[in-house]
Amino acid sequence: MLASTSKIGKGYILTSTTISAAVIIVTLVVLLSSSWDAISNINIHLFTVTWNPPANQFGILSMLYGTLAVTCIALCISIPLGILTAIFTSEFLSSKYRFAVKSLLELLAGIPSIIYGLIGIAFFSVWLQNAFDLQSGRTILAGGILLGIMILPTIITLSDDAIQNVPSNYKEAAYGLGLYKYEVIKNVLLPIAKPNLIGAILLSLGRAMGETMAVMLVIGSIDRIPNPIYNVLSPGQTITSKLGREIGESSFGSTHFSALIFMGVFLLSIVIVLTIIAQQKYKSKERLYE
């Protein structure tokens, strides 16, 4: 009976794994085949600034810049806040209050992105417009701030788990040597949890780069790289916001459609690489504890 159950379980796992792998492969093949027209006909000119479909110009650099700029701003906001909050919840709060904070974070993580986008339009865009005397508050900075808030629950949760997973004997040994709590956090917890913290940041980075609706509502959606390049108070465009706005307007099979799909493939490739690196960080940490 046990042998039969074991065979059924193994068969179920093998079938699930095969189906998952097949879905991934089919998805990649479909996306690559749909983007092949742009790759073969536009090739290196895809990595230029100008996006003008009527003139058959499909440069994605302005969208790539917008994606990187918004993501960097989001990480600059969420990484320090997220890790500090994770340290506080993990080391200073009782289990009762820690559970309440975790529940609140899960609630925030479950809020639809369109709601965050509406908050961004009603508050952040208006605030930036008034604070910096802008014609419009829908800017790269607004998108970055909003995205930073959106990924904050993810970074806090993953960072908290990373700190909690540090074996207690490390902390006990440090306290036994007479270290104060802040010294234990600085010299023991953070160095040991560092690989998992990096993994948490990379996973959050992948989520940030794939966010569409909220960013699309507040970024301004203008295909250009600001001049000067660090002027984040100007409107911009991300890869996902571009796809969200134009994929429905393009003709299936056209070069325009193919170029949009190529942007999606390019973004997917970045996210896959980040995910693999993050998983390697977690695996290296598991080997350290063994």
Describe the protein.
The chain has one domain: Orthogonal Bundle (MetI-like fold). The protein is 75% helix and 1% strand. It has a two-stranded antiparallel ribbon with strand order 1-2. The protein is globular. It starts with a helix and ends with a helix. The model has no long low-confidence stretch (mean pLDDT 88).
Brief write-up:
With 290 residues, the chain is mostly helical.
Q: What is the number of independent domains?
A: 1
First and last CA, distance: 34 Å
CATH class: Mainly Alpha
DSSP summary, beta strand count: 2
**CA radius of gyration:** 23 Å
Series of secondary-structure elements, N-terminal to C-terminal: HEEHHHHHHHHH
Tell me the overall shape.
globular
Q: Please state the second-level CATH architecture.
A: Orthogonal Bundle
Uncertain runs are none
What composes the largest sheet? 2 strands, antiparallel
Instruction: Kindly report the CATH topology.
Output: MetI-like fold
How confident overall, as mean pLDDT? 88
CATH homologous superfamily heading: MetI-like
Number of helices: 10
Strand content: under 5%
Structural class: mainly alpha
Estimated helix fraction: over 70%
Main-sheet strand order equals 1-2
